[in-house]
Design a protein that fits this description.
The chain is an alpha/beta fold. It is built from 13 helices and seven strands.
Length: 312
Amino acid sequence: MNASHQPDPRDRPARLTVGVVGAGRVGPALAASLQLAGHRPVAASGVSDTSVRRAAAMLPDVPLVTPAQVLERADLVLLTVPDDALPGLVEGLAETGAVRPGQLLVHTSGRYGTKVMEPALRAGALPLALHPAMTFTGTPVDVQRLAGCSFGVTAPDELRLAAEALVIEMGGEPEWIAEERRPLYHAALALGANHLVTLVAESMDLLRDAGVEAPDRMLGPLLGAALDNALRSGDAALTGPVARGDAGTVAAHVAELRKHAPQTVPGYLAMARATADRALAHGLLKPELAEDLLGVLAHGAGGGSSTEGGPR
């Protein structure tokens, strides 16, 4: 089909006016995605200079106003503030009468479901919890990354279809999360994504200390393959000295880390113990090798630096 005959999303009739309270990395990206689906961003609020610049870049011509004014102008309001700030924000908006009956209030916190929106619910709002399982940069690339992104969805039963429809309009995939499971769901994502960044950054630092000029180039193929294998095969993808039971190698690692980067030792030991437990449970680590390995890990936690057995 000729591209000139493709309908322009801006020509579609707007169905909802959209507001953003908290112009951090997430809110403007979601509002921009909703705009592509035919909705119309009309207001945003942001405090820091960075938020103001981000809103101007991602949502041009959308005025920056107070949170109360955002709620006054929008049918659908995205509450995209840090988790710890959300309860106070919702309570404050409800107490000041900013919440309108029938207004869709959407928060993007992974930790909370819709109970945190109880004050707004009493004021007649329609609460939704839509958490994108994605890291955000605060740039237009985030809108593209929402395509195929899973969203943790929690909503009252009567609003479930509406919540899932909004996710689909943003290009995402809705995944229903029960209210009581939200903290566990969020902990799982933090464990996998946030801690991964720390592990990779520490690994690159150590490689630089070891003389590697381009640690990112060295790690890229290795980590990409490890992630792909883990997603495909789970624990069966475990490799390395811990899964093999190479106690001498692990002891050498601990000694070197204690000498050159002592701050990394607790994390190394914790991950090695977790890896050993999983490898044992899945029959990858032989029980007769596990005893020496666990002894090394216990000794390392006590501050020793033995390298008995030597590296392999």
